[in-house]
Amino acid sequence: MSHLLTISLSSAILVPCVLSLRQLPLSLTKASISSSRNLSMDSSDSQHFQNVVVMRHGDRLDNTEPLWVSTAARPWDPPLADPGKVRAFCTGRKLRSQLGFPIHRVLVSPFLRCVQTASEVISALCAIDDDPVNMTGDGVAIDPSKLKVSIEFGLCEMMSREAIRLELAPKDGNWGFNVSELEAMLPAGTVDTTVERVYQELPQYEEGVPGSRIRYEKVIQALADKFPSENLLLVTHGEGVGVSISAFMKDATVYEVDYCAFSHSRRPIFFGNNESFTAGNFQALTKHGQTGISYYPLSPITNPV
Ligand SMILES: *[C@@H]1O[C@H](CO)[C@@H](O)[C@H](O)[C@H]1NC(C)=O
Ligand SMILES: *[C@@H]1O[C@H](CO)[C@@H](O)[C@H](O)[C@H]1NC(C)=O
Ligand SMILES: *[C@@H]1O[C@H](CO)[C@@H](O)[C@H](O)[C@H]1NC(C)=O
Ligand SMILES: *[C@@H]1O[C@H](CO)[C@@H](O)[C@H](O)[C@H]1NC(C)=O
């Protein structure tokens, strides 16, 4: 995996609600489908799976409006375009109906497009009455007790010129991410301000592409270990989604990640008598092309019988 994967910047305005995203490949055992926050509740079976979904943000405004950067106060941090909000909300709706397990916790990159994406997804996941006419979370009443969300700097964009052009990066090195302002954009009642971040601050600019790939893998693992009894949704950037496949699927090389594409990985986890747990390795279950991620080999190699 020496080349950068292609982050789709297609400006085609899709109506994602009518796209038929095929179902996630789910071959879950009964034990992995937990309807409560406590995966260790099913005492009849001590093995459970912890699920981690890693998702890319929706359509960014500087893609649909190339002139946006010329006047932007923060040209390194574009918001979502309107179709991106629709795509994010509708992807949240699909996660809710198709995953087969609840999301207990959402962790999100501090970049504006990711916070806005997380906000839409959370509205869909927590909507009290899911009315199919609603295409965004605006005005949708939610039950905020369903999940918790917090900002994680370690899920940020690749801090390198391949992802953020040198001339767009802040001259004074101040990226200006204000956590309380970002939290205020998330649906009321869902923010968990007690979470200690894995990355207390942004990685240095020019961490390099290999460096950011190592970071994404470390952060996914660290967050899973931090919340072993919870299923997680990580809202991040294209490269982070790519890493969630290439790190957890043998010999997979990711070459394209669409807006709002998501991967699903899981690991077996065993809880001890006290707070202790033992976990197996993550395995990515997402199939090529099913949820917006394209990778080689295109299908699992099967031996002819
Ligand atoms: C979680 O499961 C443990 C072990 O079965 C139990 O003691 C505890 O009360 C449960 N916690 C919740 C919040 O349900
Ligand atoms: C759908 O959105 C409208 C506002 O656009 C809102 O008034 C309505 O309550 C929403 N429907 C649901 C079921 O939340
Ligand atoms: C973050 O934003 C809040 C609300 O606008 C403001 O009160 C606070 O001073 C800001 N913090 C920093 C470090 O800029
Ligand atoms: C409980 O955890 C401690 C370490 O935190 C460990 O030493 C001990 O063996 C554990 N006890 C059981 C019964 O698992």
Automatic annotation (TrEMBL):
UniProt cross-references to InterPro entries, sorted A to Z: His_Pase_superF_clade-1, His_PPase_superfam, Phosphatase_SH3-domain, PRIB5
Top-level lineage group? Eukaryota
User: Which UniProt keyword terms apply here?
Assistant: Signal
By its UniProt entry, which PANTHER family does this protein fall under? Answer: UBIQUITIN-ASSOCIATED AND SH3 DOMAIN-CONTAINING BA-RELATED
- Please report the name of this protein according to its UniProt entry: Phosphoglycerate mutase-like protein 1
List the CDD domains hit by this protein, alphabetically: HP_PGM_like
Q: Where is the signal peptide?
A: 1-20
One Pfam family matching this protein: His_Phos_1
